[in-house]
Amino acid sequence: MRRSCLLAALAAVVALPALGQDREALDLFVRPDKGHCIACHQLPAGVGPETRSDLGPRLEGSRMRELGRDALKDLIDDPMRRSGESVMPPYGRHRILDPREIQRLGEFLHALP
Amino acid sequence: MRCPEALFRAAAAVALAASCGAFAAADQVKAEVAARLQQQVPGISAADYALGAAALDNELRSKMQENAAASAPVIEAGKKLFGRKFGNGRTLAACFPNGGRRIAAAYPQYDARLKRVVTLEMAVNQCLKANGEALYEAADADTMGALTAYLRSLSDGQRVAVRMPAAAEERFEAGRRLYFTRLGQRNFACASCHVQSAGRRYAEQVLSPAVGQATHWPLIRDGRAVTLQVRMRECLELMGAAPFAAGSDELNHLEYFLTYLSNGLALKANAWRPSTAP
């Protein structure tokens, strides 16, 4: 019993960032004057606010890790470098987010469940 | 000097070709946008396109029906403005045929004398000016909004029939260019949402297809009339761009382009929308 409790506590600590406990990153994700990513993307259940918005793809942790940290940050900085058809804002190129915020958001996405 | 018959025929042929050229170019754009939308949101009937976002959102469609009566006080206020006597004893009805009935479907229209696109709102202000009255602010919901809510309600069911003379081709093209140009800090074009992503949801709201976008204005939101150009300004702000003024040539060209895309669809003014609609 004691061992299973310990394991559960450990799992919760490991999962903290993935469960959206990085409040600042979640704030960047949600705020209309910042990333406002929530206007287009759905997050895994329990990580952030639920939405039916689907202008962009649903964000799954496995896909984010497949892309990798560098590609994620590059994508947030300027998605048009990957595709001229992208309708995602160029957060870095248009100075919507600063480099530290892009780094934070990239880490948040990379840690999604 | 009389115009020789051959010269007259040649001039007529050139004029006709130029006119057909403009018509063909605009119609080609219309067909291309319609084809793209057929891929993006297949299976929408022409009648449904005229509903805008509600064509793709059953929840919005049923709320529109529930709240249909919300337009009545706005239309009534517009009717009073339409019947208000000017200082010279005339009313707005003096400037519009049929007392303003069945006219809205032909706007915007190109005025060859002014060399400008004239919207219904501009036509109202032209009438006020001609009669020595103070003009209405193009973006004011209580005056211009209410007035056009009434005027457009007199054309419900009429098919949009915007004309495209050769001389107006540049204006149509300017509107098309603006619609497809990425603007502002967020780097969206109107077409990013309303052609490329029509039917998807942004901030919970279904994105209306470009075809049919011009058929149901003004909207009734929070009991007030929201004209198409006021809505365009809201979109531009969302895009992080400084919005053009309501009544500017830029927004008039955009409205001209957008309304031409809806040619043939039935007008149904005063569509209800929730207060949070982007």
Structural summary, described in words:
The complex is a heterodimer of chains A (113) and B (278). By secondary structure, chain A is mainly alpha-helical. Chain A has helices at 2-15, 17-21, 23-30, 61-67, 69-77, 99-110. Chain A is built from 6 helices and no strands. Chain A is globular, with a radius of gyration of 15 Å. Chain A starts with a helix and ends with a helix. Helices cover 45% and strands 6% of the residues of chain B. In chain B, the strands form 3 sheets. In chain B, strands 6-5-7 form a 3-stranded mixed β-sheet. In chain B, α4 packs across α6 (141-153). The longest helix of chain B has 36 residues, at 5-40. At the A-B interface, loops of A face β3 of B.
SSE diagram, text form:
The complex is a heterodimer of chains A (113) and B (278).
Chain A: H1 2-15, H2 17-21, H3 23-30, H4 61-67, H5 69-77, H6 99-110
Helix pairs in contact in A: 3-6, 5-6
Chain B: H1 5-40, H2 46-49, H3 58-66, H4 72-83, E1 109-111, E2 116-118, H5 120-130, H6 141-153, H7 169-180, H8 190-194, E3 201-202, E4 205-206, E5 219-221, E6 224-226, H9 228-238, H10 249-261, E7 272-273
Parallel strand pairs in B: 5-7
Antiparallel strand pairs in B: 1-2, 3-4, 5-6
Helix pairs in contact in B: 4-6, 7-10
